[in-house]
Predict the structure.
Amino acid sequence: MASTSEVTFGARIANAEALSTNLKGFVGYVAQTTDTSIVNYDALIASMKTENSSVATKKLAYSVAVDVRQKHFLKEPTSISKILSPIVAAVRAKMGKSSKELADITALMTKIRGEKLKKPKAGDTPETVSQSERSYGSMTQNFSDIVTTLTALGANYSVVKVNLKLPALLTKVADITAANNAVTTTYGSLKTTVDSRSNKYDDLSERTQRIKEAVKSQYGVSSTEYKLIKGLKV
């Protein structure tokens, strides 16, 4: 996604509004095209303000979804990273250190711990986000496989803590799956809106340049009118 800061976007809108205000005070200004008329220029500015608000809202939703997922995988006392060892210990205690079940679960735990997890940010590139999603997806699948193995053990998987019992683990699988889906959905929505906004800013910049050329042509390069708007960066 574009790395341009929100402050920069705000400054560009402010400059566009200043240009529009000046145009309204120029006597005899004639737009050369329909899309560079003051009315249509103002309409584009208004739509971009709405787009900016939408981006801010969707960035927040994405950030919240990422934080929720982080809690499930890493941060909470019942997170995946914190319950793996007690699960393995319970299987070892019941089945023995040489059992195939323990070997299978330990191998899956090793895969989970070997994943390089990065907390995605709103400004990450699609490639970075994709890599992160693969890591979380792999962790989810491997943890689900652990729970499947534990389920097959039946009474041989016996624990005291409620958060390590099968119903809680099945709920955790559902929770992390939902958390992954929420991150994917909110990122997709954010990316679409950011791209749409970027296209509108390109449009605004192009229209602004044509308006400046029209003012230069109508009033002259040394005119007060042109001097008032030529330095406004949009």
